[in-house]
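Duplicate of #3305? Posting structure anyway:
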């Protein structure tokens, strides 16, 4: 026997081995929990908001506290991805990075996607299972963002929250959903009833404004034509009934009157006026609709540039309701002015 064979063999237990705190049966359930396809809960909440860095931190603290207290869960990872106005993004890989986050680039933050991964051992399970929570916060300016699996869309320039929970316990997933929904509702801004009604009926208001303007133009042409005909009949009748005028003069007057063809000329003027009124009605209707449809922006105030962006646009949005009523007044005034202008041009 050689000296090499007499040497004791040393087993390296520090390389390529992993110690897990459960037996073979539990390990099998643990792997199934990791690899098995979980159930998914999705929820979308539309609302206006101003989210700061402290609000993102509060979301994590809220979730982590609930899971630690009720489920004795262990966090695997928290990732926070922030999207900017220049189509760039940054990924923060821990809560500590989220706490110390400070963006120096002059960009506006438009979207945040937070993802939590937990290992949780439920009472009816033998081994812990992986649960995932995703919260996407999208501002009004992030018109469309498309993940590989989940689309996020902005409707009517309002911010939104999208919750996605992949779970293996339905009651736990519903509890986390309710927790997040209540927190989101507590930080979203409430719109006034007048503003909400105007936004909801913006299309109808614009169409009614255009139709009222056009209807007023049609009524104006009808009344003008009726008044013109009445005046002309009265003028011709008075001339014919004059006793000092002979029949030849009356006949020549009638022939000259027919040759002038004033009624047809008035008809052409009326048609031109209606055509111009249609164009103006479309323009006014579109303007009123756009003003009525304006809604408050949502803001992710995570950078210094975002603070400037928010302050600039909030000062402009304060007068949205006043601009709406101003557009209605302009539409009414334009309608009345066009009628007087038509009467002046036709000489009635």
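Output from current build:
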């Amino acid at each position: 026997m050689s000296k090499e064979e007499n040497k004791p063999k040393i087993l390296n237990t520090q390389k390529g081995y992993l110690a897990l705190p459960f037996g073979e049966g539990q390990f099998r359930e643990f792997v199934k929990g990791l690899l098995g396809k979980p159930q998914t809960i999705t929820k979308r909440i539309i609302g206006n908001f101003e989210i700061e860095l402290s609000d993102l931190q509060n979301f994590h603290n809220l979730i982590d506290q609930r899971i630690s207290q009720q489920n004795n869960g262990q966090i695997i990872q928290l990732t926070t991805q922030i999207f900017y106005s220049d189509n760039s993004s940054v990924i923060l890989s821990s809560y500590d990075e989220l706490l110390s986050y400070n963006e120096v680039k002059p960009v506006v933050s438009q979207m945040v996607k937070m993802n939590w991964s937990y290992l949780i051992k439920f009472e009816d399970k033998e081994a812990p299972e992986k649960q995932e929570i995703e919260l996407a916060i999208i501002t009004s300016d992030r018109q469309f963002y498309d993940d590989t699996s989940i689309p996020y869309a902005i409707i009517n320039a309002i911010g939104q929250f999208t919750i996605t929970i992949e779970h293996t316990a339905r009651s736990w997933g519903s509890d986390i959903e309710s927790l997040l929904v209540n927190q989101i509702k507590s930080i979203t801004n409430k719109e006034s009833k007048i503003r909400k009604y105007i936004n909801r009926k913006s299309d109808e208001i614009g169409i009614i404004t255009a139709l009222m303007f056009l209807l007023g133009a049609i009524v104006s042409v009808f009344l003008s034509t009726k008044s013109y005909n009445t005046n002309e009949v009265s003028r011709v009748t008075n001339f014919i009934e004059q006793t000092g005028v002979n029949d030849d003069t009356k006949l020549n007057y009638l022939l000259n009157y027919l040759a002038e063809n004033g009624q047809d000329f008035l008809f052409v003027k009326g048609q031109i006026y209606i055509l111009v009124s249609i164009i103006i009605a479309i323009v006014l209707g579109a303007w009123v609709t756009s003003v009525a449809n304006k809604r408050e922006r949502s803001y992710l105030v995570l950078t210094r540039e975002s603070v400037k962006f928010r302050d600039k646009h909030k000062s402009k949005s304060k007068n949205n309701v006043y601009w709406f009523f101003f557009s209605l007044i302009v539409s009414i005034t334009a309608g009345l002015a066009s009628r007087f202008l038509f009467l002046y041009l036709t000489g009635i």
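Confirmed duplicate; merging threads. Confidence is low (pLDDT under 50) at residues 1-14, 143-156. The first strand starts at residue 39 and ends at 46.
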